[in-house]
Amino acid sequence: MGTMQELRTMGAVERAARIDLAAAFRLAVRLDLHEGVCNHFSLMLPDGKRFLLNRYGLHWSEVTASNLLALDADGHLLEGEGEFEKTAFYIHSRIHLANPRAACVLHTHMPYATTLTLIENGRLEMVEQNALRFHEDIAYDDTYNGLVVDNAEGDRLARVLGRRRVLFLASHGVIVVGPTVAEAFDSLYYLERACRLQVLARSMGAKLRAVRAEVVRETCRMILADTPRYAGAHFGALRRILDREEPGYSR
Question: Which of 58, 61, 76, 113, CA to CA, is 20 to 30 A from 1?
Fold first, then answer.
């Protein structure tokens, strides 16, 4: 049993985690990264035994810090009220278990990234600055097996993702992971921006302009070196908008 100070500190850390994840849901609505009342975000809590997940049936504009569910890896509902989506549990729990990098796991059907999963050998090409941040950090699952409704399929997706940051799911959507909500959300945002530019460029029917391999590597290195600081600033700025315009997310 921890001291009262330790317990208060743990409570404050969990409260901050809940607020960050709730902010990510609200921001995803504003940026058109959501779909219906499906798709799901999760965040492993500092104890490494529980993760937060959105409640089934809520629109993401309704998600708050207090209505997030806390689950364990066996699917026990430890905190909160309501149901969780089965596919959400099997995707997120297995990735959290398999990938230490994946403290935060974001799954969406955001339109431009999903568009690339619909074409044969759809790939995010390293031809534009936003894309370069994902150099050698994307996995592609080219087999669509339907809904993820058991541990076996969740484990398969976790294996395909491996230690990479992004997984494109054939005919389905994307998964983005990160060590914090801020870094995962920043990646999600720039992934969709990069995919949007490539979908638009391909619609012009011309050949994509190549970027030299050494420039790809060096640009990626420079972007990643600054990612924690930049992602924190980016997410902080977006949260300030929420604090002004829809502060209820943090309740």
Answer: 76
How many structural domains are present in the chain?
1
pLDDT tens, residue by residue, 121-165: 999 999 999 999 999 999 999 999 999 999 999 999 999 999 999
3-state helix, strand, coil in the chain (%, to 5): 50, 15, 35
Question: What is this structure's pTM?
Answer: 0.94
Q: 238-245 long-range contacts, Cβ below 8 Å, gap at least 24?
A: 238/23, 238/27, 238/185, 239/20, 239/23, 239/27, 242/23, 242/26, 242/27
- Cα–Cα distance between 160 and 139 in angstroms, integer? 7
* 108 backbone dihedrals φ, ψ, rounded to 5°: -140, 165
* CA torsion through residues 29, 82, 178, 241, sign: positive
Residue corresponding to tokens 């403290």? 103
Residue 104 is part of a domain; what is its CATH number? 3.40.225.10
Residues near 29 by beta carbon (within 8 Å), at least 6 away in sequence: 59, 60, 61
Provide the edge-to-edge strand list for the sheet that holds 77-79. 77-79, 69-71, 51-53, 40-44, 104-108, 173-178, 166-169, 138-141
pLDDT, tens digit (0-9, with 9 covering 90-100), for 197-222: 999 999 999 999 999 999 999 999 99
Tell me which residue range forms the domain holding 31. Answer: 4-250
Distance, in Å, from the CA atom of 177 to the CA atom of 127, rounded to the nearest integer, reads: 23
